[in-house]
């Protein structure tokens, strides 16, 4: 059942959804000061929400104790300016534990990530997310990807579940998403259910998702180049096709092609980008690994290319 307060807050600020990286210090432990600075910079730049300890934030690598500290730091740093949504995953029992830790830390909602490793049927998936939603008073967004892919009928059942307010799609099957949107729209015509484009570089498919009515999206780019991410977000929302296509051609497509060169780059490349911006957030934890120097240099050039395009636009040299 959609909760108007959280749903309204997730759409109240006209900006991307911010998925901060989790900062680590030289000793490998969580660096809360650096994380706070990262969150504050994102909120000040215009993030619509902070999704802490999710995929980009290396949820998989955090202990429960670290998770609670990081979520609490995000809540304190945002000070209610935008909602904080925390990740929750693994099997049902552990997902419930993380959900309760997030609630204790003051989070506004949950992003329910796929269950650990197992491939379950639709009945089992529905039971898992229903139990997770019932475990706390936090509204829940279900993350569709990998081993958690839903039929339209299952999503309709999820939408009818108290506490579940939306679906984030990281699977990328637009035919399936259109059928899901249609099933929920016809099955629950009086209820607003939120949809999010959650692909690794969601801007690349932003036009396609808008075609089926999905306008909310997570932006990994916002974590390391908020100026580019915001410019794209505004251009997409205002119908500025020239800037949208320019950034797609000269920034986002090259970024996605670089991301495809290494495993785990949806996280490690983002974290490298944050470091390039001057914030010492440390390296990724194993089993992820850092990109080689050649790929960092390529990322540097891609960021420069995106900013050069924005500068030319400001100078009136391009449409």
From TrEMBL:
Keywords, comma-separated and alphabetical: Lyase
Enzyme class: lyase
PANTHER family listed in its UniProt record: 5-DEHYDRO-4-DEOXYGLUCARATE DEHYDRATASE 2-RELATED (PTHR12128:SF19), DIHYDRODIPICOLINATE SYNTHASE (PTHR12128)
Keyword Transferase in annotation: no
Similarity section: Belongs to the DapA family.
Name this protein carries in UniProt: Probable 5-dehydro-4-deoxyglucarate dehydratase
SUPFAM superfamilies per record: Aldolase
InterPro entries: Aldolase_TIM, DapA-like, Dehydro-deoxyglucarate_dehyd
Pathway(s) annotated for this protein in UniProt: Carbohydrate acid metabolism; D-glucarate degradation; 2,5-dioxopentanoate from D-glucarate: step 2/2
EC number(s) per entry: 4.2.1.41
Chemical reaction(s) catalysed: 5-dehydro-4-deoxy-D-glucarate + H(+) = 2,5-dioxopentanoate + CO2 + H2O
Pfam families: DHDPS
